[in-house]
């Protein structure tokens, strides 16, 4: 397929910041346009969370998805204060909030989200359960860098398999691996069910 999504100006600036900072962790195609597409689908008053802001590439794509939607809100968390400050210095609408801090420490305090892009060590490779807990019913979780073929380090391969297994086996989630880019996994949190509703007999 040769379809190309236009790169929004804010994404271009975030990519330029990545070059300036020698930052190599920015999300790669097709994650960016996918994030924008999924962000555009959040419900009225929808909440979006990104773990690991980097230089703001994913943030900018997510923000593009909720462009001119005052009701929706995007929060992103970055541990590195200098990166967070550089991203914050860009021109963001007021419904985009950049937190500085440890994602794993902040997760239990942030509430529930309709879309989460887990792209930091914390909340993905460790503390994934906290991220799943932070999904609203019907909420979507996106993780990338899941293509096992890219890694030779046994520890990292084990970590990839652990994340994959957690997302696949969690009964609260419906999960699809998507073999695109660096390897994507998308999970939807099922609506919360009453404790015993699945055991009830049909009269
Ligand atoms: C893969 S990069 C994020 C890229 C960004 N999401 C994008 O799409 O361009 C991971 C980022 O997570 C940050 N990070 C690492 N540990 C973290 C933690 N415990 N809490 C929050 N951010 C963390 C790193 O500083 C780095 O900027």
UniProtKB/TrEMBL annotation:
This is O-methyltransferase YrrM. The lineage of its organism: Bacteria, Bacillati, Actinomycetota, Actinomycetes, Micromonosporales. InterPro entries: SAM-dependent_MTases_sf. It holds the Pfam family Methyltransf_24. Transmembrane segments: none annotated. It comes from Micromonospora sediminimaris. It comes from the Bacteria. SUPFAM superfamilies: S-adenosyl-L-methionine-dependent methyltransferases.
């Amino acid at each position: 397929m040769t379809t190309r999504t236009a790169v929004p100006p804010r994404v271009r600036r975030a990519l330029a910041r990545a070059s300036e900072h020698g930052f190599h962790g920015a999300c790669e195609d097709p994650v960016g346009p996918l994030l924008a597409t999924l962000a555009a689908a959040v419900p009225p008053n929808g909440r979006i969370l990104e773990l690991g802001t980097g230089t703001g590439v994913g943030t900018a794509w997510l923000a593009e998805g909720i462009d001119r939607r005052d009701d929706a809100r995007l929060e992103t968390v970055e541990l590195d204060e200098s990166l967070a400050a550089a991203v914050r210095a860009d021109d963001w609408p007021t419904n985009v909030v950049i937190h500085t801090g440890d994602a794993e420490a902040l997760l239990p305090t942030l509430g529930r989200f309709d879309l989460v892009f887990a792209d930091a060590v914390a909340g993905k490779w460790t503390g994934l359960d906290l991220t799943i807990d932070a999904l609203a019913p019907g909420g979507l979780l996106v993780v990338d860098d899941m293509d096992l073929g890219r890694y030779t380090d046994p520890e990292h391969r084990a970590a990839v398999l652990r994340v994959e297994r957690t997302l696949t086996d969690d009964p609260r989630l419906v999960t699809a691996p998507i073999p695109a880019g660096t390897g994507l996994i998308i999970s939807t949190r099922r609506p919360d069910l009453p404790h015993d509703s699945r055991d009830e007999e049909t009269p």
